[in-house]
TrEMBL record:
Subunit-level organization: Probably a homodimer.
Biological process (GO), any one: cAMP biosynthetic process
Family named by the database record: Belongs to the adenylate cyclase family. DacA/CdaA subfamily.
Function: Catalyzes the condensation of 2 ATP molecules into cyclic di-AMP (c-di-AMP), a second messenger used to regulate differing processes in different bacteria.
Domain DAC, chain residue ranges per copy: 74-234
Source species of the chain: Hydrogenispora ethanolica
EC class (word): transferase
Keywords: ATP-binding, Cell membrane, Membrane, Nucleotide-binding, Nucleotidyltransferase, Transferase, Transmembrane, Transmembrane helix
Transmembrane region(s): 31-51, 57-73
One GO MF term attached to the UniProt entry: diadenylate cyclase activity
Gene: dacA
Name of this protein: Diadenylate cyclase
InterPro entries: C-di-AMP_synthase, CdaA, CdaA_N, DisA, DNA_integrity_DisA_N_sf, DNA_integrity_scan_DisA_N
The enzyme's E.C. designation: 2.7.7.85
Length: 267
């Protein structure tokens, strides 16, 4: 029985660490987390070898880190707790987000076509079951009904928010100029830039749908479930968005997230 408890204990700790790594991957916090792990391993090693002075010093540093970590990792911890909450079926039943409105899809497709034709880059995020509160808080609040003129103006090169993403929830633009998590370990074709990397990273960490418009090539892409579909026409984008939303509606009852796997692929 004791052995079984130990195995369960190790598995639970491993699961928590794995979830934290997934959330912090692609952020500066991952380097701090690596540093903390190295210090912890050094402390264990020095204690085992009987190096009292070194182990005392490392123990003091670890105690200081216990106080400092919640401050250093406040954004990452918030994302971690939100990730746990988003998987809770009871909470999802009561906090079920509004569905993506069909008219929002049509407007975004039309805006994406116009932006692509003008070679203006864009990053448009549709929130689904997984809440993207941290993403929204990283930008400037908009809370406006989705319309083609507003979408285009937000990405116009003269706009102070054009470099970030816009976050759409239901039929409203919640925020603009948002920062998305970047997984710098991704191996992408040379012609794909930071917008594609950001969209792909977010789609691997959540069930969000991310529309990417390249200012270099004028091509439209869609990131979903850690996969990137490139060179889409307006009609292809409209079809895929509607198809993915319908699949989510059919397969996912209240409180069920269809997040797919996290394998990142480019097609």
């Amino acid at each position: 029985m004791t052995k079984f408890k130990s195995i369960v204990d190790i598995l639970l700790v491993g699961l928590i660490l794995f979830q934290m790594f997934k959330i912090m991957r692609g952020t500066k916090g991952i380097f701090l987390l690596n540093g903390v792990l190295i210090l912890y391993l050094a402390y264990i090693g020095s204690s085992s070898l009987g190096l009292k002075s070194l182990s005392t010093l490392l123990n003091w540093i670890m105690m200081m880190l216990i106080v400092a970590l919640p401050i250093i990792f406040q954004n990452e911890l918030k994302r971690f707790l939100e990730s746990l909450g988003s998987k809770n079926p009871i909470l999802k039943w009561f906090l079920n987000p509004p569905p993506i409105a069909p008219q929002s899809i049509d407007i975004v497709v039309e805006a994406a076509e116009s932006l692509a034709k003008a070679r203006i880059g864009a990053l448009i995020v549709f929130e689904r079951e997984d809440r993207l509160t941290v993403v929204g808080e990283s930008g400037s609040p908009i809370d406006g009904v989705v319309n083609k003129v507003l979408v285009e103006q937000l990405f116009y090169p003269g706009s102070p928010l054009h470099d970030g993403a816009i976050l759409i929830k239901g039929n409203r633009i919640q925020a603009a100029g948002c920062f998305l998590p970047l997984d710098n370990g991704l191996s992408l074709p040379q012609e794909l830039g930071s917008r594609h990397r950001a969209g792909l990273s977010l789609s691997a960490q959540s069930d969000a749908l991310v529309v990417v418009v390249s200012e270099e090539t004028g091509q439209i892409a869609l990131a979903c479930h850690g996969r990137l579909e490139r060179n889409l026409s307006g009609e292809s984008l409209r079809f895929r968005l509607r198809e993915l939303i319908e699949q989510s509606t059919e397969k996912a009852g209240p409180g069920v997230s269809q997040s797919g796997d996290s394998k990142m692929e480019v097609s």
